[in-house]
Amino acid sequence: xxxxxxxxxxxxxxxxxxxxxxxxxxxxxxxxxxxxxxxxxxxxxxxxxxxxxxxxxxxxxxxxxxxxxxxxxxxxxxxxxxxxxxxxxxxxxxxxxxxxxxxxxxxxxxxxxxxxxxxxxxxxxxxxxxxxxxxxxxxxxxxxxxxxxxxxxxxxxxxxxxxxxxxxxxxxxxxxxxxxxxxxxxxxxxxxxxxxxxxxxxxxxxxxxxxxxxxxxxxxxxxxxxxxxxxxxxxxxxxxxxxxxxxxxxxxxxxxxxxxxxxxxxxxxxxxxxxxxxxxxxxxxxxxxxxxxxxxxxxxxxxxxxxxxxxxxxxxxxxxxxxxxxxxxxxxxxxxxxxxxxxxxxxxxxxxxxxxxxxxxxxxxxxxxxxxxxxxxxxxxxxxxxxxxxxxxxxxxxxxxxxxxxxxxxxxxxxxxxxxxxxxxxxxxxxxxxxxxxxxxxxxxxxxxxxxxxxxxxxxxxxxxxxxxxxxxxxxxxxxxxxxxxxxxxxxxxxxxxxxxxxxxxxxxxxxxxxxxxxxxxxxxxxxxxxxxxxxxxxxxxxxxxxxxxxxxxxxxxxxxxxxxxxxxxxxxxxxxxxxx
Length: 581
Prior knowledge:
This protein is an alpha+beta fold. The chain contains 13 helices and 16 strands. The longest helix has 57 residues.
């Protein structure tokens, strides 16, 4: 099957398929009706022939019984001679050799002579022939049940070639021989069987009994069931042609009705759907493809057209809503991108940060979980011999945390530049944040001041992560678990304590936010402090920038495809000593 320009695959017409289905259904129904009718008619016709045959057999039998009593002696004599013959002699009756058949009939010569010259023959002949009306054969016979044979007693057939002489026999079925010989007198006595001479044949019989319970012979009537076939053919002609005409008329009526009530509405809905898709691609503003169909079938197809019209209106409204949302989202994304650039520009981003100072090297990086983050770092020269270092983490994420971060960063920097100690800087910042903290946000922060000439570092922490110092002399990292104050913005009048340490030549200070140890993989396992220390030890005496790149690579490898759920900020300071001037 080919495809149209719209890409829809061509298929067979629904109308033609419905027409074929309707015609086939009507034809099948007509054939079934014809078969049922012929079965009923054939069965009735068969019963009619059986009844006719049995009635004639009964009448002819009574006539023989009361009109020719000598038949008893005739039948007895035939069966006496038959029973006296050997099986080989009996078989001569059906031999292909005419001489053997003549020899078999010679055994009954006295009977045949008697039939030809005596009164009994003429009486039986005319008596039985009177009943050959509407049937094929009427004759007298007796069954040899042991050998399943019918032995003829008297056959008045006018055709000399088909006439059976006394003692002649034909093979019959065991059911026929047993049924006739053991009949209990109830119902009709008949048997239907197939013969070589006449095809399907119905044989009806009446037992002739001169003594009660002793059957001398049977008056038998044969009817060829080919008459039934002829009757069925006649029935098929008389009934089949009108039935065929009625079937054609019914198929035409049903097809027109199905086409009007089913095919046309479905094709209309399909065409409307195709036009809807084309107009959508073309950007047309038409929104009444389905409502204009005006289908009133009063069934599911009408419900479908109404539903499709409602769906079209809802889709149009949804698309307009999506368009507005998309435009708004693009605007917000644009503003967030600008906010991200502004936030990044507020942090020191030029490295090397102090190219004229050889006593130390510093590098920092921040990677927000969203467009903007709540983490920040800062470093600045307080005077010629003191370097201020800050790292902080605002609770929450996104724009609120970023705004709070900018406020906190400005407060800390302004107080640190006044040559205040780290503890005082945190105390001042806490007071400022607590004075107007309606959003109840808080900040963890670490502030340190490095005396460049001596390597002495004074620091204070407000609930922040413990810093790490790499001792170049031993090549190992140490987690500095000093005293930690309460978070900024949590409670008023909080006090913060300081601690100090002296950095030796080649030592490095590593500070970070909780996004590093709390980085989580897909199985919800944390990166942890131990892995962080191992990564720092592996970086060893590398430069601050290389150290952060090593830690970040290890974090990324651990997290894998899992989503980054928190801001990740790191800062590394390497102290090279005053002699590095």
